[in-house]
Amino acid sequence: MIPGEHYIALSAIIFVIGGVGFLVRRNVLVTLMSIEVMLNAANLALVAFNRSHLARGAGQIYAGQNHTGQVFTFFIIAAEAAEVAVGLAIVLSLYRLRRTVRSDEADLLKN
Amino acid sequence: MILLGQIFFYISALLAVGGAGAVVLSKNPIRAAMGLLLLILSIAGLFASLHAQFLAAVQLIVYAGAIVVLFLFVIMLLGPSASTPADGRGAIVRTIGGGLFGLTGLLTIAAAVRASMGTPSGYPVGTVDGAYGGIDAFGAVLFSDAIIPFELSSALLMVAVVGAIGVARGRQGVGLTKNERESVASVPEPSMSPTPHSGLYSHESHGSHALVDAPAHGDYADHAATAGASKGHA
After folding, report:
1. Residue B187 and residue B141 in one domain
2. Structural domain boundaries, residue B67
């Protein structure tokens, strides 16, 4: 079997790629996608850690094997869907105001 | 069997890194969205290899089915202006920032990998029940221990939907540019008058300035006055 470290290393690499994209790119759409990449990396790390911490009955009620990381990932996916919906609405609103999707031209609150 | 699992892991890992690289590097946002799709598919495969079948299905449904499609909708809606042309403004600062982040992260990963090389695994994958990660066990956890955050997440999604509608709809017409106002103003109003051109080409008759109720300042004064005049004339 693949040990957990491999998954964690892969998740760290993907997170770094997403973070570099978030810092370097100026297209708001690509910035949002980079956030998605980082969250996916975090999800992978959570599920991988969960796979190596399987203590039975770790929850309050459920007595089976521990699912905490997977439940976390589930809620992260829900939060991420909400984030993308609102973020893309903001992108559309920015485009309507400024005719651009560049993040450095979103300076409506400046001065 | 073990070899097959390893091959699956390494192929999925390679595809995931390639997808993430495509998101970051591609100039065209549609290609970036396709890279995101590739990353999501391979992460779903890795979830399946970690015995999280339900999460793999949720990943496919929510990410590939909803989020990537939403991205593609917005990219197609914006058209060619979704891809920004490159210019050198702030390139040095961004390169320094991104380079420092990437370098620090990769060095940290390399140091961690080098330190753990040769030692027995600190995170061995345990043996799981057959039901682990399936919809039975996951649903049992979700509706016993995690019931409060589950209900709260439904409230979160509700608020997000309402907020997205409110933000994307905007105030009608307020944020329009000059060209858009012009095009809106030049659309003939449906009128019952026998002369169809009376409202459209009546730029000469500026007699009804009192009808203008829009905030007429700056560039928009002419168009607002024209619109008001044509409206009054029709």
Report:
1. no
2. 1-79+131-146
Domain of A44 in residue numbering reads as: 4-55+64-99
Query: For position A1, what pLDDT does the model report?
Result: 72
Is the ipTM higher than 0.85? The answer is yes
| pLDDT tens-digit series, residues A49-79 | 998 888 777 777 787 788 889 999 999 999 9
Q: Tell me what the pLDDT averaged over chain A comes to.
A: 89
Point out the residue among B62, B122, B170 whose CB comes nearest to the CB of A93. Answer: B170
Residue A109 in domain: no
| Pair (B135, B199) in one structural domain | no
Is B185 at the interface with chain A, CB within 8 A? no
Whether residue B102 is contained in a domain is answered as no
Confidence of residue A37 (pLDDT cuts 50, 70, 90): very high
pTM, two decimals, is: 0.78
pLDDT in tens, B72-117: 999 999 988 888 777 677 788 888 999 999 999 999 999 998 888 8
Looking at chain A, the whole-number percentage of residues with pLDDT higher than 70 is 100
Q: What is the CATH number of the domain that holds A80?
A: 1.10.287.3510
Structural domain includes residue A79: yes
Provide the number of structural domains found in chain A: 1
The total of structural domains in chain B comes to: 2
The string of DSSP letters for chain B reads -HHHHHHHHHHHHHHHHHHHHHHHH-SSHHHHHHHHHHHHHHHHHHHHHTT-HHHHHHIIIIIIIIIHHHHHHHHHHHGGGGSPPP--TTHHHHHHHHHHHHHHHHHHHHHHHHHHTTSPPSSPPPP--TTTTSHHHHHHHHTTTTHHHHHHHHHHHHHHHHHHHHHHH-STTTT--HHHHHHHHTSPP----S-TTTTTS-TT----GGG--S---TTHHHHHHHHHHHHHH-
Residues 19-78 of B with CB under 8 A from A: 20-21, 23-24, 29, 32-33, 35-36, 39-40, 43, 46-47, 49-52, 54-55, 58-59, 62-63, 66-67, 70-71, 74-75, 77-78
Distance from CA of B133 to the nearest CA of A (A): 7
